[in-house]
Design a protein that fits this description.
81% of the residues lie in helices and 2% in strands. By secondary structure, the chain is mostly helical. Strands 1-2 form a two-stranded antiparallel sheet. The chain starts with a helix and ends with a helix.
Length: 310
């Protein structure tokens, strides 16, 4: 597959990803104050994934339509900064989704809106600082560059002068990947114990009081409908995080090798790694629509409202 064919495939997939993520974000952003903390992170995740793919879509279209020799250094620096910022935000939001689920299920904490706001603001502040720092130091031309596949302007992982920036980004990528599996293993253990206790209750009624007391600090106020929703959201979280791991791990490997060796890798390797990220961004909103009843209902209600107006 030559460069032009790769760009055409990328444009189709990035367009689909942008539409799906924008749909989830736009039709739910108005309800964001009413949404539970994990759903707030999911809406913002869709918004950041839209920014990531829409920005790269512009890059892909430009290099498909213009001559191969075209390159605008300043425009690429800006697009590289936006791509990096959106990527860091997406990773931080996925990590936050895991953190919130861990705190609620394993630790039994109730996530307050204030905690959600502080987490989002901290993530935005740290990510923006990392992205802007090369401009402050005057090395943005070395840090941000057009990738050989011409799909995106992003961090020049092989460039020695970009090594500090590259390592910072890789740490932010690696932390969620390294901790997510541990967190969800503990969540799985907790949920398994809960379901085992419920199963034991169904077979011996005399244990009812003991079982109820053991659950007093965890789930005493939840109705059956609430429990089903929590179960569905847990499945959604696991599916989203699994999709994230599959999508970003190849790119982490690709970037790590370039940082270590200081050399470009093959175009095929880079293209596959980039496609994994785009496919992750396509499947994520689909999984959200399947598992999150509230977000799905908001979109359907908006569609019905538009149809009624017509």
């Amino acid at each position: 597959m030559n460069l032009k064919h790769r760009l055409r495939v990328t444009i189709v997939l990035e367009s689909l990803s942008s539409i799906l993520n924008l749909t989830v974000a736009v039709f739910n952003i108005r309800y964001i104050r009413k949404l539970p903390p994990s759903s707030v992170l999911i809406v913002l995740l869709c918004l950041s994934d839209f920014g990531f793919n829409a920005n790269n879509l512009i890059t892909s279209v430009i290099h498909l339509c213009l001559p191969d020799s075209y390159y605008d250094s300043q425009a690429c620096q800006l697009q590289g900064a936006i791509t990096t910022l959106m990527g860091l935000l997406s990773m931080g939001l996925v990590a936050g989704l895991t953190l919130f689920r861990y705190l609620m299920i394993v630790r039994g904490y109730h996530i307050q809106p204030t905690f959600t706001i502080i987490y989002i603001a901290s993530l935005a502040g740290i990510s923006t600082t990392i992205v802007v720092f090369p401009f402050v130091l005057g090395v943005a031309d070395a840090v941000y560059g057009l990738q050989p596949t011409k799909i995106a302007c992003t961090v020049a992982w092989h460039e020695p002068r970009a090594r500090g920036m590259a390592i910072s980004c890789m740490i932010i990528i690696a932390i969620p990947i390294a901790t997510i599996s541990i967190a969800y293993f503990q969540i799985y253990q907790k949920v398994s114990r809960e379901f085992k206790a419920f199963k034991d209750l169904s077979t011996t009624s005399k244990d009812h009081e003991r079982y109820t007391a053991s659950r007093h600090n965890i789930n005493q106020c939840l109705t059956k409908e609430d429990q089903e929703r929590q179960k569905s959201l847990l499945i959604q979280s696991v599916a989203l995080v699994s999709c994230f791991l599959i999508g970003w791990t190849p790119y982490l490997i690709f970037a790590s090798i370039q940082v270590i060796t200081g050399e470009h890798l093959s175009l095929d390797f880079e293209f596959v790694a980039e496609m994994c990220i785009i496919l992750n961004d396509i499947f994520s909103p689909i999984l959200i629509l399947i598992f999150d009843k509230v977000l799905r209902s908001n979109i359907l209600n908006a569609g019905k409202t538009c149809c009624c107006r017509d």
